[in-house]
Amino acid sequence: MKSRCEDADKEGEDADEHLPVSSPPSSVSPHPSSITVAGEDACNTSITSKHRGRGHTKQGRDDRIPCGKHISDVSLHGTVSAHAGKNLNGLVHERALHVRATGKILQGKSETNGNYVTIHASKNIQDARQEDGFKLARKRRPVTVDISKAKTSLEALKLSIKQLKWKEFPLGRRAACDIYWHGVSFHDNENIVSGQVNKFPGMIEMLRKINLSRAVRTMQELFPEEYNFYPRSWILPEEYQQFSTQIRMVRENDATVNPTFIVKPDGGSQGDGIYLIRDPSDLKLMTGSQAKQAVVQEYIQKPLLIDKLKFDIRLYVLIKSLEPLEIYIAKEGLTRFCTEPYQEPSQKNLSHVFMHLTNYSLNVHSGNFVHSDSQSTGSKRTLSSVLYRLAAKGVDIKKVWSDIIALVIKTVIAVVPELKVYYQADIPPGKPGPTCFQILGFDILLMKNLKPVLLEVNSNPSMRIEHEKEVAPGVFEYVPSPVDEEVKVGVIRDTLRLMDPGHKKPSIAGGSEHRDEIPMEAGTRERSPDEGGLPSLCLKQVYPKYTKQFNFLRLVERIAALFIRFLGVKGNMRLGPTAFRTFIRTCKLSNSNFTMASVDILYIDITRRWLGTVPDSREAGMGLQAFVEAFFFLAGRRFKSLVLREQVVSLLELCEAQLESQSGGEDRRSVSCSRALPRAVNSQTLGLLHAATGGCQPDVVCSDDSDIHHRHR
Ligand code: ADP
């Protein structure tokens, strides 16, 4: 939601099997720096939230990223990279070279500035392949892209299309296009019945601060240890009382504790309306006569500092498909620096935005903002340059990167259930419609102890490749920003490559079914024969790649599958009382202790409370979040002796078994989008699984794997 101008930079290394980042080569001298490493986990302060739902540049040569596991290979190709041009492509290719050295060269090619150099014996095979590729390219018509609604992404998009030699339609097109690029939302163009759109319906809504907090909170209830990367948050105005009470209790327990909180307006972006408080009485609760919708969040007091400055990370993430779930992470990101040296919050400095808020849009107006041509200095730097500095200080950046990947996957898993509800409402099964994909912008803060913390997810990350410059006093002009151009064009171009309809099998819910492709590395797998001159992909597949480690988290998706099944009317997003009763009856959840009258009371009670919390809800009935609350309640009632997660798994199994038996196993569509765990998995197994995976880092192999690729429509 930040939009406008964030930043962007280059891409990194080979993010192969494990992590894209590795220690820097000893031959490359890092910057001297003042990195502070130590600290506490601010996410784990003693404030407990029990409620759920409602009540409840050119970069300097020696800074070139050593991101990549084959760092030693960097020197191997040093001479080649020395030829890299200073232009966009040059940078991209040079980087790819650093990273890819080993794995991709085995393909028989190495990249220089956009050209392939044959380096091994497989020349004949390669020539034959290339020839095939050219023939294919000649036969294929170019992919068509409607760019009429691209808005601020337009420049980066046009450059990407040019690099791909695809065909753009600046004014739209009567006939259908293969791809529609929307600047804002799924609905920018109405009545699209085919092709692919770069936005999912409902993504904007889901990623608003309140909804994201709710979705993560539900996951925190089920998997508290897995979701401790999100600061404790309270939703205003509805949770004002809980917030005040909890803070008071914390202070009463320990007078030395004086936490700080950050208040963020629900629909805000670019730091707008954000302020810090130390006491609940400082909350600005009203706008005129209306209660302000906002999230108040624990403030991370001890961020990692570089050059004494606070910074955050902008990471680009592609959701290629919801069903099956496919997630890619850009190997390069941006870091945005504050412009005033950081001090822990005190009553005196609470209002110092240039000290506490990393937003580019704010800091650019500070006299201290540095527009640097180098990717490793200035107020906007590449993530890789920052990781490099950390590595030079002995930081285990592999672990940092692995934690970041885990954070991204877990966050996506938290929002997918509701996205599926939006999806089926906008593009009901059986109705012609496009499939969807979307680039998201993750904002992540590294704490002093190097733990990544999720700040927010932007449904419309800025894809601008220019920045504002004051060319004369008071006169601003947009000037090209090479760093932005490099990163953002890479992300858009490679997103398009991944979505190339010529390389996609038809599927549902915005995706291609390619289970067989899982073992293949994105960089090689996705290369098409007619992409000869393009650099290897800067997007790394992380899901389903790390299915084994994260699949067990997809419980709410299974609840959503039940919910969707009982929605009934196409286009609906809410369950009526009759549909809720049908759900209870079909799954045989009522009995003499829990009569249908109690079911009705439960329905009324929960929907009434949720109605007040969703101000813009036009539809009556029970939304997914309310249904999840009801489901948790039913699970708790039925399996009293278990902990919540086990209760939910048990009830899901019961419901799914009922549905399966009734449909004779034929209609599996709604049984599960992601049957995460084998039937026999019990609470102990869950506990062990979690323990065994050490919090499920992506580079750790879990013993349990299961099929997540049930089609559910
Ligand atoms: P916006 O969408 O308005 O930019 P963010 O959630 O990204 O809202 O917050 C703006 C900035 O505030 C972030 O870039 C970060 O620097 C700072 N910030 C946000 N949340 C926290 C937090 N919980 N602890 C510390 N700093 C935070």
Automatic annotation (TrEMBL):
Keyword ATP-binding included in the entry's annotation: yes
UniProt biased composition (Low complexity): 20-34
Example of a GO MF term: tubulin binding
Biased composition (Basic and acidic residues): 512-530
GO terms under biological process: microtubule cytoskeleton organization
Keyword terms: ATP-binding, Ligase, Nucleotide-binding
SUPFAM superfamilies: Glutathione synthetase ATP-binding domain-like
Protein name (database record): Tubulin tyrosine ligase-like family, member 11
Source organism (scientific name): Echeneis naucrates
Cellular component per GO, a single term: ciliary basal body
